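User: I'll paste a sequence; please echo it back and then give the predicted structure.

Assistant: Echoing your sequence first, then the prediction.
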Amino acid sequence: MLGSKKSVQVVLLSILLGLTACAQTSQQIGHSVNLCCPGNYGDYKEYRLETQDIPSFLNAYVVSEFDSVFQEKGLMRNDSRNQVRITLSYQHVNLNPEQETIDPFERQLEDDVTLRYIATIVVDIRESSTGEMVWSGQINRIHTVVPGEYMHEDVARPEFAGAFREMLASYPVLTE
C-alpha cells in the first residue's frame, strides 16, 4: 500500500512538473505561483526571511539570490520589525521509490547508482501580524545525479535568480 501511495505521488508530481514546464523560462529551473494577491501589498515595506530544510550547501546563495530579487519589488529585509514573513522551504521527492533511503547529498562510492528526484523550494509569504498567507510560489528542478554530486555555485546563482524573478513576476511592486 505504501509503495502504491508513493507511486501516485510520483505520478502527480510528474504531471505538475509537466504543467510547470509551460512557466519555465530558464533552462534548468521551473517555477509556478500557488497563491497570488489577497494581501494589502501597499502596507508591506519590510520582510523577515526564514529557511526550512534547505541543504546547507545551498542555503547561503539561495537566500542571497532570493533577497536580491525580492528587494527589486521595493521591500527591505528586516528580520526584527516587518509586515511579512517569508519562508523558503526545501522539498525533495525521489522519482524512483526503490531509492527512497538514499541521501542524494551523501557520497556513495561503492554503488553505481544514478538518482532521479525533484527538488523544490517553496516560497510562502505570510502577514507577520495575522499569519495569513498572502502569496506563495515555488521553483523546482528534476535532477539526475550520482549521490554526492552537487550544483556548482557559479552556474547555480544566475539560475536561482532567474527562477525567483520569473516566479515573483506577479508579486506587486511597492509604490510610494
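The CA atoms of residues 40 and 134 lie 8 Å apart. Confidence is low (pLDDT under 50) at residues 10-26.
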